[in-house]
Amino acid sequence: MASEDRVVGHHTLAAHQLATTRLERELRGFRASLEVHLRTVAQKAEIEEKALERQQWLRACQAERAQDADRRVFAPARERQQSAQAERSRLRAQSQEMAAARERQEEARVRGWEQSQVDRANHRRMEAEERD
What is the C-alpha separation between 121 and 132, in angstroms, rounded? Predict the structure, then answer.
């Protein structure tokens, strides 16, 4: 027979029952506090997760607003810069074309002058031959 089953006296049985009931109550209380703790931890984790999601969403919104602001503020300036650059490029190309045209005209003038010198020399030589 186990010591719990053995009844020595009325006081021992009452003490045993009291101890068993106290232990059961303490275990129930421990279990309840553990459940509350686990529930609290789960709620905190869920709250932190939602807070992280909100922060990510807020960062994305702020980045989008910043991009919109950049587009509104800097896009016209960029467009002006691009159009100014295109105009400078066009003017540079036009200037190069004009310089090339002047160079070709000068070369043509020099060739014409050289040809005229050759023609004059040939004409003089022919006149000299005719006189002789």
Answer: 16
